[in-house]
Amino acid sequence: MGLFGADMEKCFLSPPAAFIIVLLACFLLSYLFSKVSFKANRHTEDGGTPYACGEDNYNHMAQPDYSTFFPFAFFFTIAHVATLIITTVPVEILQTFTLAILYVIGAVIGLYILMRS
Fold it and tell me: What pLDDT score does 60 carry?
């Protein structure tokens, strides 16, 4: 039986109880690691910002442009999903193979439209 009994063991293994146990363990670990982690001093004695490799301290506000990133991200996502579909389709069944070929043709057309613009 064990220390708690069969019903109590099932209670600890239920998804909500397991989630709460893991969540509490994560909070405890986060608290313990925050006590031993390095705390950076944000300001120097003169009130300025910390020394950064001899660079002049100027306010550079980098504005990254992700407009070229997203088409490539969609390209690789569609390419990987199309590859997954093709590799998992059974070739013996002509109907599923035909649907897979139509899916790949649709993916190629979608990629062409995506990369054209």
Answer: 59
pLDDT score at 63: 66
* Token reading at 8: 């109590």
Residue numbers in the chain where pLDDT is lower than 50: 1
The predicted structure's pLDDT at residue 20: 93
Please give the structure tokens belonging to residue 44: 């120097």
Contact between 78 and 107 under an 8 Å Cβ cutoff? The reply is yes
pLDDT value for 93? 76
- Residue pair 10/2 in contact by the 8 Å Cβ criterion: no
Position 59 in a domain: no
Asked if residue 86 belongs to a domain, the reply is yes
Say how many domains are in the chain. Answer: 2
Query: What is the number of other CB atoms lying within 10 angstroms of the CB of residue 99?
Result: 13
- 51 occurs within a structural domain: no
Task: Supply angle C-alpha 101, 104, 107, rounded to 5.
Answer: 155
Q: Which domain holds residue 107?
A: 69-116
Q: Greatest CA span in the chain, whole angstroms?
A: 76
**Domain presence at residue 95:** yes
- 107 in Cβ contact with 80 (< 8 Å): no
